[in-house]
Design a protein that fits this description.
480 residues, alpha+beta, Dna Ligase, domain 1, 2 domains, binds adenosine-5'-diphosphate, binds magnesium ion
C-alpha cells in the first residue's frame, strides 16, 4: 500500500530570513498567549517554555472532521451507557482484573461504592476526548480518553496562533478553513453545570493534580476560564498524596471537605497511572475511594474511568457487543464505521489466533496494555517478541491488539524550544472533546466541545506533546 501525501495548506518553501522572522514571531506569540508548558530539562516554578508546535496548520479532510464532530454526542452516550451497566463492565473486565492489578484496584473501588449503594440521582460528569487518525482518507478511532483529557485549554490558543501565522504569511483569506475551537469554554461550561447541579453556593471545584505539573498552562486556562464564566466559583488544587494524608475528609452526609471547603465537583487531571498511587501505605487509593464515596460530582466517576479502558474499547469492537448498548442499528453502524481492527489476547483459542497473526506480521499491529498517558504501547518487531514471550502466560490478557493506522504524510516545520525549526514529514491525530452529565436514570447534558490536533514526525511511534514527541497543531479543512 503506497503512502498517501497531503499538500501543505500553503507553500512552506521559505528562504532562511523569512523562516527566521516568522518562527521568531510565532514563538513570541505562543509565549505571550500561553501556548506553553514547564520545562522538564530546566524545571522552575517561575518560568515556562513555549510548547512544541508546527508552523502552519495541517490539511485535514473537512468531511472526516465533520463526521468526527457529529459522532461525539453518540460517543459520549456510549460511554455513559457502559458506565451505568455494571454487568457489562464486570464481564468485560473480569479477566483483565485477574492479571492487571491497577485496573483491578480501580474496579475494587467501583464495586465497593456500588455495594454501599449509590443514589440513582447522583450525577457524574464526563469530559472526554475521542482520538482519531486518518486511515488513508477516513477517520479511525485510536482511543477514547475518559479521564484527564488534556489540551482543551492550549488548543484553543493554537487555533489563534495559526490564524495569526497565516495572516503574517499573507494568507489571511484562508482563515475560514481553520475552524473555530471552543474546547476550553465547553469543558469549563460542563464543570460549571455540574457545580450548579450540586447546588451549594459556597462549594468549590477541586482539581486533582500531579506532584509536579508540567502542563500547567492548560490546567490554569481551565481554572481561569471557570472564574471568568462564573466569578463566584473557586478552584482549589491538591494532589492525591495530600488528600490521602489527611487533606480531605467525609462528613456524615458524605460531603467531601478539603481544608474547610465543601467540594462540589472533582476534576481529575491525575489518577490514571499506577505511578500516581505510589505511597507504600496506599494513601492515594484511600483518597480515590473517599472521593468516589463522596457526594461531590466526579469528572470522571470511577465508572466513566473504567469505561475508557482499552479492554472495553476492544470488546466493543467484537460483533454483537455494541448491540448490547444500543437498540438503534443506525447508532451501532455510525460507531462501528470508525472502529479499526481490535483483538482480544485472552488465553483462549481466539487470543491464540490473534497472537499468532501478530507474530507473523508484527509491523501491522500495536500492542496495548491497560494504561493511559502515552509511552506504554509496543510497536513493530517488538510486538512479535513480546507475544512470543507471553505464549501460554495468562498475563497476555492484560494487553489488547490493534491494527496499525497509517495516516497520510504531510510536510511541515516543527518548532521546539532550544532547537532549530525542522522541516519534516509529519502525521496527525485529531481529538474531539465531549461533555456529558447524567446519572443512572437519565442524561442531563450531552454536547460536543471543540477539538485538538497533535502532529508528530512520521517515524515516531507516539506523539505525546506532554511526553515530548509531538507538536501542537490545528486542522486546516480541505475537500479531498
Ligand atoms: P494512551 O492512552 O497512552 O494515550 P493511545 O492508544 O492513545 O494510548 O496510544 C498512544 C499513541 O500511540 C497515540 O497517540 C498514537 O500516536 C499511537 N497509536 C495508538 N494506537 C495506534 C494505532 N492503532 N495505529 C497507529 N498509531 C497508534
Ligand atoms: Mg492517547
Amino acid at each position: 500500500m503506497s503512502t498517501i501525501r497531503l499538500e501543505p495548506c500553503v507553500s512552506i518553501d521559505f528562504d532562511s530570513s523569512t523562516l527566521d522572522e516568522i518562527v521568531t514571531k510565532a514563538k513570541d506569540w505562543a509565549l505571550m498567549h500561553g501556548v506553553c508548558m514547564r520545562s522538564r530539562q530546566n524545571f522552575s516554578p517561575d518560568s515556562i517554555n513555549f510548547a512544541p508546535f508546527v508552523l502552519v496548520p495541517s490539511a485535514f479532510p473537512k468531511k472526516e472532521f465533520e463526521k468526527a464532530i457529529e459522532l461525539q454526542t453518540l460517543v459520549n452516550e456510549m460511554i455513559h451507557q457502559i458506565a451505568n451497566n455494571y454487568e457489562f463492565l464486570k464481564s468485560t473486565l473480569a479477566i483483565t482484573n485477574t492479571v492487571d492489578p491497577f485496573t483491578a484496584q480501580l474496579f475494587k473501588i467501583y464495586t465497593t461504592v456500588q455495594e454501599e449503594g449509590v443514589s440513582q440521582e447522583e450525577c457524574c460528569c464526563g469530559l472526554f476526548r475521542c482520538d482519531y487518525m486518518l486511515d488513508r482518507d477516513a477517520v479511525r478511532q485510536v482511543e477514547i480518553n475518559t479521564i484527564a483529557s488534556s489540551f482543551a485549554g492550549i488548543s484553543t490558543r493554537v487555533t489563534r496562533l495559526h490564524r495569526f501565522v497565516m495572516q503574517e504569511l499573507s494568507h489571511g483569506d484562508k482563515l475560514q478553513q481553520i475552524p473555530e475551537n471552543n474546547a476550553l469554554e465547553a469543558l469549563c461550561g460542563g464543570m460549571l453545570k455540574a457545580w450548579e447541579i450540586y447546588n451549594q453556593p459556597q462549594a468549590v471545584i477541586l482539581f486533582i493534580i500531579e506532584e509536579i505539573t508540567y502542563n500547567i498552562c492548560d490546567q490554569r486556562f481551565h481554572e481561569f476560564e471557570i472564574r471568568k464564566q462564573n466569578p463566584n466559583v473557586r478552584v482549589i488544587r491538591r494532589n492525591l498524596t495530600q488528600l490521602g494524608r489527611g487533606g480531605a475528609s467525609l462528613d456524615a452526609e458524605k460531603k467531601l471537605i478539603v481544608d474547610g471547603h465543601e467540594v462540589a465537583v472533582i476534576y481529575f487531571r491525575c489518577g490514571y497511572a499506577p505511578d500516581q498511587y505510589m505511597s507504600a501505605d496506599g494513601c492515594e487509593w484511600d483518597a480515590r475511594l473517599m472521593m468516589e464515596r463522596s457526594k461531590a460530582i466526579k469528572c470522571p466517576s470511577i465508572s466513566y474511568h473504567l469505561a475508557g479502558t482499552k479492554k472495553v474499547q476492544q470488546v466493543l469492537a467484537d460483533p454483537g457487543n455494541l448491540e448490547r448498548i444500543f437498540d438503534d442499528p443506525d447508532k451501532v453502524a455510525r460507531l462501528r464505521d470508525v472502529f479499526t481492527g481490535l483483538y482480544s489476547l485472552d488465553l483462549d483459542e481466539e487470543g491464540d489466533r490473534a497472537a499468532e497473526m501478530a507474530i507473523q506480521n508484527p509491523e501491522k499491529y500495536v500492542l496495548k496494555p491497560q494504561r493511559e498517558g502515552g509511552g506504554n504501547n509496543v510497536y513493530g518487531e517488538e510486538v512479535g517478541e513480546v507475544l512470543k514471550k507471553l505464549k501460554g502466560n495468562p498475563e497476555r490478557a492484560s494487553y489488547i491488539l490493534m491494527d496499525v493506522i497509517k495516516p497520510p504524510l504531510l510536510q511541515n516545520w516543527m518548532v521546539r524550544p532550544s532547537t532549530q525549526p525542522m522541516r519534516v514529514d509529519t502525521l496527525s491525530e485529531l481529538g474531539i472533546f465531549g461533555v456529558i452529565i447524567g446519572n443512572a436514570k437519565e442524561i442531563l447534558h450531552n454536547s460536543v466541545g471543540g477539538h485538538m490536533l497533535r502532529t508528530k514526525i512520521h517515524t515516531a511511534n507516539e506523539g505525546g506533546v506532554a511526553a515530548g514527541l509531538g507538536a501542537l497543531d490545528s486542522p486546516f479543512l480541505v475537500d479531498l
